[in-house]
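Table 4 source record.
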Amino acid sequence: MSQLEDIRRYVGSVREETEDIARRVWDYAELPFEEYKSADLFKKALAEKGFEIEDGLAGIPTAFLAKCSVGTGKPVFGLLAEYDALDTLSQEAGLTVRKPVKEGAPGHGCGHNLLGAACYGTAVAVRDYMKDNGIDGTVIFFGCPAEEGAGSKQFIARAGYFDDVDFCYTWHPSNYNEVGNTGSVAIMGANFTFEGIASHAGGSPHLGRSALDAAELMNIGVQFLREHMIDQARVHYAFTNAGGTAPNVVQDHAALKYEVRAPKVSQMKELFDRVVHIARGAAEMTETKMDYEITMAFSDYIGSPALSEMMSACMEECGAPVWDDADYEMARNMLKSYNEATISNIRETLAERFGADKVDELMEKPLHGGVIPYERVKNPVYKSGSTDVGDVAYASPTVMLNTATSCLGNVGHTWQNTSFCGSRIGMKGMMKACEIMTLACIRTAQDPALIAKARAELLAKNGGHYTCPLPDDVLPPVGKY
């Protein structure tokens, strides 16, 4: 029996419970920092498998680790699990028409139910394989909540939990099967509040100082800033308090939430400082008081090139998920649920990636059935999304792979993606990710030279230590984000 065949046997032995966990977490659909049922489910399942549990990492109630050592316990490696859902994306699994399980309720529109479950299956399969084959090492399952909110991995990293971890692997549900060479950008978020003086807007407006005016002036200033920032940067905002609903009152309180993104932490911090200066200027113009509280920040993510090459080789060896006619039918019908503009964009994206001559064929069978090889690049391209996995990648050599759990062109953070992530298509992609990560963990644990190479890459990247993008006094905003 080849090593891959053996690995598949171990992964197969945990398939049923892994899929059951994925479905139960999908049912729970808990929002960031509220994932109590999901976290308890993982902790109970891992404790029953003999893993030691450490709860409440970095002061976050739903963050934990579960570890198990074999032999000398070296090397030490981690699996980064997520299990939070998104607001308002409730949707029945496997349906290609909009039908919420509960109107307005959360749903797993980013597939974190699959993400966490595959890490569970990998942790158990790897531990069992190591014990049966005399391989030393410690596998740690990191339960990481709130990736869709303020994040948790940066707080866990700041607390030192990744300092002695030799490497970390994770994955994410996707449209494609690949270990990508692109990066994700750094992000910082904060709540801005303005305090003014209330007054009668008709009778004595001159006595008031409008906090709402200040908030609106801040927004106008940021709009002008957009011309003067790098192309890859982004600024997002939302009013969280507009001062009430009475127009005849000079509003004495207003609040906004801002998030800024840029490829590097240094660029992100510089852009954030400019937003703060604009807020101060708005307060000065309106004679109001401004305050802000930083609530979240993620570092940029670039995977370890050495480990990415190894992981990609494991993916090519394992192959893509195997789809059948029922899978293709669901995928085709799901594509039809998008509007014309989105479908046109999907066709353009497929043409760019696979060639114009392949588009019609791919739209007929819109599930990725191949593996896109990893290519090392000198200057990585940054996509505009962000993830707290970036912080782990500055603390320990880290790789995140993607496997197909939805149709080609599917848009994340949608009801369509919630449907896929509770379907047989999602489960197939999840189990393939489990297989790939299990093989990669074993291969890496048995290759000290590869681990040393990855550590050398990390040293060149972080200068010898992880630096959290958050100020030291910023605590996890549990119950406040």
